[in-house]
Amino acid sequence: MPPVRSNRKANVHAATGRETTHSSMSPRPYRSVQRQVAAEQTRARIIAAARELLVASDGFSGFTIDAVARQAGVARMTVYYQFGSKLGLLEALFDDLAARGQMQQLATAFQQPDPVAALAEYIAVFSRFWASDRLVIRRLRSLAALDPEIEQGLRARDEWRRGGLGVLVHRLVRECGRPAPEALDDAEDLLFMLTSVESFDTLAGPARSPEEVALLMQRLARAALGLDEG
Predict the structure, then answer these.
(1) For the CA atoms of 67, 154, 215, 209, what is the dihedral angle to 10 degrees?
(2) pTM for this entry
(3) 61 and 105 part of one domain
(4) How many helices and strands (H and E) does the chain possess?
């Protein structure tokens, strides 16, 4: 009889029911996760650098893609790779500010069954947001007068705020009978002005808290819309 050749590796595989394959040992998924984590860290570092430039003493003149890249310690093309354009970087910065200012709480306002309470919560959320990072928000608003891309980004956010107010005003008309249907546009314009950062800064002054400003804005809104009338 021919000699029987021992194959311990095959016997082990047969006994355990397992088979070693190249794909199960591939490092590719791990490397992919590493790359994703590194990209997210780079993205966060660039956004933080943009914010740091805005609060710097020369923030008005120093906010450029090159300056942000230097501040973040990355190449200029890395900023473009992550965000596509300066407007893309600004949109990411706006989103970061919104997250810091807890703008996700706006959902609570629209979930209120009472439209008057919904408007009050909407005003309160924006009051807290405007107070969350006042220096950066002020710098961005000031830069918008000089930089068309910043102005474009802020205008889009403002129109989004106006749209939310429009939804609430229509609920008030439908459920409370106020304001009068023919005064819808005026009501939206008034609330848009009242919930702006400029109004917040004026009412806050050096002493009022965001909560106090919100209460004042809510009273003004109810009075202007006739919601306190019998």
Answers:
(1) 10
(2) 0.80
(3) no
(4) 13, 0
Q: What is the DSSP letter of 25?
A: G
Two structure tokens written together for 36:
């994703």
pLDDT tens for each residue of 162-211: 999 999 999 999 999 999 888 999 999 999 999 999 999 999 999 999 99
C-alpha angle 219/224/225, rounded to 5°? 100
CB-facing half-sphere around the CA of 191: CA atoms within 13 A: 32
At 176, the amino acid letter reads: C
- Those residues whose C-beta lies under 8 Å from the C-beta of residue 149, and which sit 6 or more positions away, are 85, 86, 87, 90
Please give the structure tokens belonging to residue 60.
């008005």
Residue numbers of the domain that contains 67: 22-84
Are 130 and 187 part of one and the same domain? Answer: yes
Q: Tokens 């309160």 map to which residue?
A: 124
Q: Which two tokens stand for residue 14?
A: 């047969």
Residue 10 lies in a domain: no
Burial of residue 17 (number of CB atoms within 10 Å: 0-12, 13-18, 19+) = exposed
Please state, in angstroms and rounded to a whole number, the distance separating the CA atoms of residues 27 and 25. Answer: 6
